[in-house]
Specification:
Layout (H helix, E strand, L loop, with lengths): L1 H22 L34 H15 L17 H4 L2 H9 L1 H7 L1 H7 L13 H15 L2
Keywords: Heme, Iron, Metal-binding
Organism: Sphingobacterium spiritivorum ATCC 33861
Pfam families: Cytochrom_C (PF00034)
Length: about 150
């Protein structure tokens, strides 16, 4: 008899768990709030002339966060100036093409782009190429886009 009560109790618990799982949204499927890319403006000087705007990709942003920590925090922080400017809000002020060109070809940007030249005059150091490929640069862009939505 005890076995039957335990068995029924166990079955109810399973049913309750299944019901709770159905009612509880899966947090991994939820997307972080992000804003759209800046559509108009200076595209910069370099290899990126156009950018395909895609929905937010949290995995790409996570990869970008890791790369940002390793490659960018030497000179940049998201919310504080360092050797270079704070990057919070950059995706609201600059086109994705401009940002990608600055990441991939800073030497060309600092030599020919008026916005990059003006920005460099406000800081002590000049940005150098970090040896990133286009996909890695896009992941950092996606990370910055996520940060700008906070």
């Amino acid at each position: 008899m005890v076995f039957c009560i335990t068995s029924c109790t166990s079955e109810n618990s399973k049913s309750d768990r299944q019901k709770n799982q159905e009612e509880t949204p899966d947090k991994t499927k939820e997307q972080a709030p992000v804003h759209d890319y800046l559509m108009e403006g200076n595209k910069g000087v370099g290899t990126i002339n156009q950018f395909e705007r895609k929905p937010f990709d949290s995995r790409l942003a996570d990869q970008g966060n890791k790369l940002f920590i390793v490659k960018c925090t030497i000179c940049h922080e998201v919310k504080e100036d360092k050797i270079g400017p704070a990057l919070y809000g950059v995706t609201k002020k600059r086109t994705p093409e401009w940002i990608l060109n600055m990441i991939l070809t800073p030497d060309q940007m600092l030599a020919k782009d008026p916005d990059a030249i003006a920005l460099s005059q406000s800081y002590d150091g000049m940005m150098t190429a970090m040896g990133l490929n286009e996909q890695e640069a896009k992941s950092i862009l996606e990370y910055l886009r996520k940060e700008d939505a906070k």
